[in-house]
Specification:
Blueprint: E1 19-21, E2 24-26, E3 33-38, E4 43-49, H1 53-70, H2 75-91, H3 93-104, H4 108-129, E5 135-137, E6 145-152, E7 155-159, H5 167-179, E8 182-186, H6 192-205, E9 212-214, H7 219-231, E10 235-241, H8 244-253, E11 260-264, E12 269-273, H9 279-291, E13 301-307, H10 311-323, H11 343-358, E14 362-365, E15 384-387, H12 394-397, E16 404-410, H13 413-420, E17 425-426, E18 428-432, H14 436-445, E19 450-453, E20 468-469, E21 472-473, E22 486-493
Parallel strand pairs: 7-8, 7-10, 8-9, 10-11, 12-13, 12-18, 13-16, 15-16, 18-19
Antiparallel strand pairs: 1-2, 3-4, 5-6, 6-22, 11-21, 14-15, 17-20
Helix pairs in contact: 1-7, 2-4, 2-5, 2-6, 3-4, 3-6, 4-5, 9-10
The structure holds nicotinamide-adenine-dinucleotide (NAD).
Nicotinamide-adenine-dinucleotide binds next to helix 7 and helix 8.
């Protein structure tokens, strides 16, 4: 291995390189392994198991066996374990943040913030676990009692992406365990280490053997490995965050066993700046929303619509802020924009920008990969603003997932709402205006599950996060989030008169 000397942990036992099944850390049955790369320099610094169908089957067996006793624990017992896990996550923030920055590339300050954000879901569902109330229905005839109880769905398979290696998996595992489900998880191939460390801390918190299992697989082996879970009738729920094509595949492939599904999929968020907006607030909201995680965020503004009357003023203010951003590796404490995750990501950004330029877009700032001032990083892209963007461009239709802001102009409210909704996706949308009536009109017409109104960063553990249209279904976080992991059972008792 190379490059590992950069990774200094206070607890070396948090750098796990094994699967965790039935309470035991173990290699893949095949003995195969795959590499973990630091995207800041392209160097391999760790290896994890490259699992296949055998490991996937072992994980289901473990979770299925454990479910019978785990579901009988009281909600308060589960809540206490989640609280212990939450405390351990926070106590190990620095190590988790370092692991995350090393495998994912985000600046350390962002990685620390993600630890707090991911942990907030664990705390939230520890609190929600004890509030999984049912109902007693008013009887419609004498001598009857009718009740509705909530029960855990069973074994939950969680499949997660690389862009938020801690938060995405925490906000699936926590509600599942809180509900009384057991979990089998597969983190993204690019970022398994943060997830393994999180599970290590869950083990330390005392979750019983088999309640939480995790296996790693390379991109190539993801499909055959997860396929075992899709077809096994004991797996009762799939919870997935990732791209829309993979989400659709999971829904199709699991249809034979009619599993419950939560699909948090891709977005193509519009960000609208009306002529009556506070421009500094809008620039600030866009900077915070767009450049978080170097633009590799599902709710990241992807199409920025600026009213023609304020376009030049807005573009000038935005360009000043974007030019001031510092690009660099997480080891640089002033870095605000890290590397993209891998070659595929940088290729997509290059493709989008080249396509836009060939169709008339103009570079206001950036527009190229950054190699000159970063010694050894192949995956950096300079923060970019494109003006004169139009609907024929790939970046109008697809998520760019990088630090590129295309500016579109519009002249009236109806036109921009129609354009904003002209996408099969519906995850997030944002708009800036100081007109109260417009806030009401626009928020009711935008087709998205999450709307930022004069706000560029909207996610929180207390809010239901999720999309509509081809951005998927299901909600994570909030008082609604536990229901995705529970099923209703109606009990009707007679002969009571
Ligand atoms: P991806 O869909 O390629 O991969 C996500 C996960 O699915 C990974 O663990 C991967 O190994 C696995 N996977 C891939 N192909 C598979 C297959 N055939 N069978 C089983 N598993 C498979 O997505 P990505 O590129 O890693 O992540 C970026 C995408 O995730 C973006 O589209 C982004 O918008 C989306 N995302 C959505 C949310 C949300 O909450 N809606 C949050 C973060 C990211």
């Amino acid at each position: 291995m190379t490059g590992q000397s950069d990774l200094k942990l206070e607890r070396n036992d948090l750098l796990m390189n094994a699967n965790f099944i039935a309470g035991k850390w173990q290699p893949a049955v095949s003995g195969n392994r795959h590499n973990v790369m630091n995207p800041a320099n392209g160097m391999i610094f760790a290896e994890v198991p490259d699992s296949d169908a055998q490991d996937a089957a072992a994980a289901v067996n473990a979770a299925s066996d454990a479910f019978f006793s785990w579901r009988k624990t009281t909600n308060r017992e589960r809540s206490k374990l989640l609280k212990t896990w939450h405390a351990l996550i926070l106590a190990n923030t620095e190590d988790l943040a370092r692991l995350m920055s090393m495998e994912q590339g985000k600046p350390l300050a962002e990685a620390r913030a993600e630890v707090a954000y991911g942990a907030s879901y664990v705390e939230w569902f520890a609190e929600e676990a004890v509030r999984a109330y049912g109902d007693i229905l008013p009887p419609l005839m004498p001598g009857r009692r009718q009740m509705v109880v909530k029960e855990p769905v069973g074994v939950v398979a969680a499949i997660t992406p690389w862009n938020f290696p801690l938060a995405m998996i925490a906000r699936k595992i926590a509600p599942a365990l809180a509900a009384g489900c057991t979990v089998i998880a597969k983190p993204a191939e690019d970022t398994p280490l943060t997830a393994l460390a999180l599970v290590r801390l869950a083990e330390e918190a005392g979750f019983p053997s088999g309640t939480l299992n995790i296996i790693c697989a390379s991109r190539q082996n993801a499909e055959p490995t997860v396929a075992i879970w899709l077809h096994d009738p004991r797996v009762r729920k799939i919870t997935f965050t990732g791209s829309t094509p993979v989400g659709k595949y999971l829904a199709r492939e699991s249809a034979d066993t009619l599993k419950k599904l939560s699909l948090e999929l891709g977005g193509n968020a519009p960000f609208i700046v009306f002529e009556d907006a506070d421009l500094d607030a809008a620039v600030d909201g866009l900077m915070r929303g767009k450049f978080r995680n170097s633009g590799q965020t599902c709710v990241s503004p992807n199409r920025v619509y600026v009213h023609e009357a304020i376009h030049d003023d807005f573009a000038g203010r935005l360009a000043a802020r974007v030019r001031a951003l510092t690009v660099g590796p997480a080891s640089n404490p002033t870095a605000e924009i890290g590397p993209m995750i891998n070659e595929r990501a940088i290729d997509k950004i290059n493709r989008h920008v080249k396509d836009a330029l060939s169709k008339g877009a103009v570079v206001l700032t950036g527009g190229n990969t950054v190699r000159d001032h970063i010694a050894d990083g192949p995956f950096y892209y300079s923060p970019t603003i494109l003006t004169n963007s139009s609907e024929e461009m790939a970046l109008f239709c697809e998520e760019t997932f990088g630090p590129v802001v295309p500016l579109f102009t519009f002249s009236n409210e109806d036109e921009v709402i129609q354009k904003a909704n002209q996408t099969p996706f519906g995850l997030a949308a944002y708009f800036y205006t100081q007109n109260a009536a417009r806030i009401c009109r626009v928020s009711s017409q935008l087709e998205a599950g999450v709307i930022g109104i004069n706000e560029g960063v909207v996610a929180s553990e207390a809010a239901p996060f999720g999309g509509i249209k081809e951005s998927g279904y299901g909600r994570e976080g909030s008082k609604y989030g536990l229901d995705d992991y529970m099923q209703l059972k109606y009990l009707c008792e007679g002969e009571l008169a």
